[in-house]
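Quick one, probably user error.
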């Protein structure tokens, strides 16, 4: 019986400690301050602007890192219907890259002919006259110690094709 009285006494003592208002005076003061504020003083949420997606539409235009080509319409060369790329031939590996990524780094010569070494497309490649280079059906026409001459076949924009000469100069180490 004494244990029951002791348990009841401890429970009452514990609960009486929770009811003490002197421990929460600072909390009561803060709550009074919040209640005293005027109603409607909360600022409204900002209005969110809807997201507008951006579509890049200049992908098909000239690269801004290359100089512009000035072509006068009157002096513009007309294409020919006889000149056109051979669509039936098997494409070579180096035709999958732009010709701008290639640099001539040297030449090799033996009894079978002269070869040029071009750097680009992940390594150094050996090419000879008659090989193709670049995406515009560029056929190598001549190799010298200082440059590679290439003839590209490009559309003229009016249904014909033009042969455009290009050359890759030897890249000397500096």
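Nope, works fine. Designed sequence:
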């Amino acid at each position: 019986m004494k244990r029951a009285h002791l348990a009841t006494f401890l429970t009452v003592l514990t609960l009486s400690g929770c009811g003490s208002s002197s421990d929460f005076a600072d909390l009561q003061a803060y709550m009074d301050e919040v209640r005293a504020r005027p109603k409607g003083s909360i600022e409204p949420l900002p209005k969110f602007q809807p997201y507008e997606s951006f579509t890049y539409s200049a992908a098909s235009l000239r690269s801004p890192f290359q100089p512009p080509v000035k072509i006068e319409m009157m002096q513009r060369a007309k294409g020919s219907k006889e000149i056109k790329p051979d669509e039936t031939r098997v494409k070579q590996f180096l035709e999958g890259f732009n010709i701008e990524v290639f640099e001539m780094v040297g030449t090799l010569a033996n009894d079978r002919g002269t070869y040029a070494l071009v750097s680009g497309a992940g390594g150094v490649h050996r090419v000879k006259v008659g090989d193709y280079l670049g995406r515009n059906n560029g056929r190598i026409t001549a190799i010298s110690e200082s440059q590679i001459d290439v003839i590209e076949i490009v559309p003229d924009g009016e249904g014909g094709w033009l042969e455009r000469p290009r050359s890759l100069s030897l890249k000397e180490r500096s």
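The helical segments are 2-18, 25-36.
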